[in-house]
């Protein structure tokens, strides 16, 4: 074979390899949005809004969450633990009628505690805990975010803040995450889990 023919074959093979890589990268990039939307649901839209509509920045953030927390394995709750947490949540709901702000603070603390027991980062690192929860319970993590924000405002002694109806709505949303974490809403392993791998 002549040197010119060998060079031509090497160039053709190199071009084919580059074309294949470009095709794979474009395919991955095209699936990132729909895959993340499916996995994160409403959390995807919240992330895009937090990044002022910059979907690439939001997707980078969500992908980083998956990389950090995607392999997290939730520790199952024993029946006694589940019953104890359920009794505490019932108490929170009962307190709401007389003291909504106190009930919101109790709900916030209880969700952080259950998440830590299940294996998520400790509630003292709320942002990290919320990020991990968003990977595995994206459909219901906003309830925890809302309850935590209201509990923080009440703890800071904010004279004006959420009204009773807003606190009730946040407590209902937080209850959905509570059900996911305790398995009260169905199968503990599947309830509220992300929809796409």
Average pLDDT works out at: 84
The biggest beta sheet reads: none
Radius of gyration: 23 Å
N-to-C SSE string, H for helix and E for strand: HHHHHHHH
Q: Tell me how many strands there are.
A: 0
Distance between the termini: 50 Å
Any idea how many domains?
A: 2
Oligomer: single chain
Q: What is the 3D form?
A: elongated
Low-confidence stretches: 187-197
Derived from helix and strand composition plus strand pairing, the structural class reads: mainly alpha
* Proportion of residues in β-strands: under 5%
Please describe what this structure looks like.
About 75% of the residues lie in helices and about 0% in strands. The chain is elongated, with a radius of gyration of 23 Å. About 30% of the residues are buried. It has helices at about 5-40, 40-50, 55-70, 80-100, 100-120, 125-135, 140-155, 165-180. Mean pLDDT is about 85; it is low at about 185-195. The chain is mostly helical. It folds into two domains: about 5-70, no CATH class; about 80-180, no CATH class.
What is the strand and helix layout of this fold?
Layout: H1 3-40, H2 42-50, H3 55-69, H4 79-98, H5 100-118, H6 126-136, H7 141-155, H8 164-182
Helix pairs in contact: 1-2, 1-3, 2-3, 3-6, 4-5, 4-8, 5-7, 5-8, 7-8
